[in-house]
Write a structure and sequence with these properties.
There is one protein chain. With 94 residues, this protein is mainly α. The protein folds into two domains: 1-61; 63-94. Helix content is 74%, strand content 0%. The chain is built from three helices and no strands. α1 packs antiparallel against α2 (38-55).
């Protein structure tokens, strides 16, 4: 999938998603008022689809590196374990 670097398009997509959610809220409110208006439902589905279409091209955020210390310690432990097993095998060969 191609990533969209234009922040304006992503913001427009967010706008359509918010408007779709608002329209869906109006639909739910009309249902609770016993005067169901399905136009709000269809408009909300359309707006949410358009918003999703514009936002789907957004590049994923960069890694935050929150677990870098844990990952590094695991890699170090694995390297030590491999070195230890390699030394053990070399000792058996001699």
């Amino acid at each position: 999938m191609e990533h969209n670097d234009d922040p304006f398009i992503v913001r427009v997509g967010t706008f359509f998603l918010v408007m779709g959610a608002g329209s869906f809220l109006l639909f739910v409110t009309s249902d609770l008022a016993d005067k169901v208006d399905f136009d709000y439902l269809f408009i909300s589905v359309l707006l949410i689809f358009i918003g999703w279409y514009f936002r789907r091209g957004k590049a994923p955020p960069p890694s935050a590196g929150r677990f870098a210390i844990i990952r590094k310690s695991r890699e170090d432990a694995q390297k030590k374990k491999e070195e230890k097993s390699k030394a053990k095998q070399d000792a058996k060969k001699k």
